[in-house]
Amino acid sequence: MTSHENSTMNGKALNILFVEDNPDHAELVMRSFQDHRVANTIHHLTDGEAALDYLLRRNAYRDPQRSPRPHVVLLDLRLPKVDGLEVLRVIRSSEGLEKIPVVILTTSHADLDVGKAYEYHANSYLVKPLDFEKFTKLMDDLGFYWLGWNHYPWPGADS
Amino acid sequence: MSIAQRTGPERSSPRFEILLVEDNPDHAELVKRSFEDHPLESTIHHLSDGEAALDYLLRSGAEAEAGAVPRPHMILLDLRLPKVDGLDVLREIRKTRNFDEIPVIVLTTSSAEPDVKKAYQSHANSYLVKPNDFQQFDELIKALGTYWLGWNHDQGRAMSRAGT
Q1: pTM above the 0.95 mark?
Q2: Are the C-beta atoms of residues B164 and B63 closer than 8 Å to each other?
């Protein structure tokens, strides 16, 4: 092990695709992610169709400059237009996207949702706590883990 | 080699079961030590090769049978392992219906891009590179314990089997 190896990801800016239609939840998440020292880029979209447009680079996101490939996707399940589970299914069946870590962040803890999410190989499934303090703590831990420690299939931010 | 090395006091109440597959005894020791003073209590079953890991998982699927072992809540998996490689262990786990919700976290010294890509291709939940620095190593283990045991959800099957 070399001494810099552990921090290769820690020091690099990451692209995060964040799909969430609830403005209050989005606000909480954005605020907590901005607290991290590394200048990560967060792309916040509010429906599943926009998420697919972004990921598949079509319609408004045809220009790769506007749709840099995310290192990690933070995905709500109940979304307008296209459901979160469908977005996940498309990610897992699209070449070039299939390895992207996807973290589900939802209010649903229904077995059916959890089961489907793992069937489509969600990397992690998180239930939003109702309690504000707990929500904040979850976001801190989530940011620390996924933005600080986890390694991604491609190193730097690219397009 | 014993099949399961238990750390911490024996308790009858549910606690988290962790399967640690790691052939480097020093790294295994560091992981165990970090979990010992983690607020979430856990029992670590340490195995040092891929074949033993697959045997263990097979027996954790056979609930009521003799020699059954607890189903792990989380698997920490090294990549370079004797007998059966870590990636092959991972692929076997993901092929098994009963294990598809168990988080498998790759914990390795390799940050080589092909390793990371293959791990995600084989549906590792997360890929972590062991820090060189002891304190950072400890921080990483603490963070992964808090995240996967404290926050991550599955269908509750794992918890209901704790302590069997």
Answers
A1: no
A2: yes
